[in-house]
Amino acid sequence: MARYVVATVDEIPPGGRKIVEVAGRSIGVFNIGGEFYALRNSCPHQGGALCEGRLSGLLLATVPGEYTYSRRGEILRCPWHGWEFDVKTGQSWFDPARTRVRSYPVQVAEGKELAESQGPQKGPYVAETYEVTVERQYVLVEIP
Q1: H-helix or E-strand containing 114?
Q2: From 25-34, 55-64, 79-88, 133-142, the region with the lowest mean pLDDT
Q3: CA distances from 55 to 71, 97, 128 (A)
Q4: Do 19 and 141 contact (CB within 8 A), yes or no?
Q5: What does the pLDDT look like over 78-110, one tens digit per residue?
Q6: Distance (Å, rounded) from C-alpha 33 to C-alpha 56?
Q7: What region holds the Rieske domain (predicted)?
Q8: Predicted structure pTM score
Q9: With 133 labelled, which of 34, 70, 111, 112 sits at a CA distance of 20 to 30 A?
Q10: 7-to-12, 61, 77, 114 alpha-carbon distances in Å
Q11: Alpha carbons 87 and 57: distance in angstroms, whole number
Q12: Separation of alpha carbons 108 and 72, rounded Å
């Protein structure tokens, strides 16, 4: 599974999102309470730009007239027809048994870790080198 750097952590503040192109796919990366999630930017209903939709919460009622609003900012509504999806899982609230939007694993990695993991293999010759430090954290999306 290939990993792609899509942003620095500070580019997507809590409650924010960034829509990126990765491996020919449009993907929305969301920060919900400091955790990152990625969804394909295409509503399975009619292909609307799902990740451009409004984030809201979930309204539940145990008895008529008594409502509880929960999961604020975790439910994504398609801007075309209002179909709702759980940002954390991609599950639809309209038809949870059959409809979902593709979600992708997301990691946060230190810049130093990325530089070490993606560098070339060492060869027999060594040149003079200098210490380089990378101090930011990066958001990575995995695409199968």
Answers
A1: helix 111-117
A2: 133-142
A3: 10, 22, 51
A4: no
A5: 999 999 999 999 999 878 888 999 999 999 988
A6: 14
A7: 4-115
A8: 0.81
A9: 34
A10: 8, 38, 23, 13
A11: 11
A12: 23
Token code pair at residue 137: 């954290």
Residue 94 has a pLDDT of 79
- CB atoms near residue 136 (< 10 Å): 12
Calpha distance 10→97 (Å, rounded): 36
β-strand partners of 17: 30
Q: Which residue has the higher pLDDT, 129 or 38?
A: 38
Integer Cα distance of 107 and 139 in angstroms: 6
Phi first, then psi: what are they for 67, rounded to 5°? -115, 150
Q: Quote the pLDDT of residue 119.
A: 55
Q: What is the pLDDT of residue 77?
A: 96
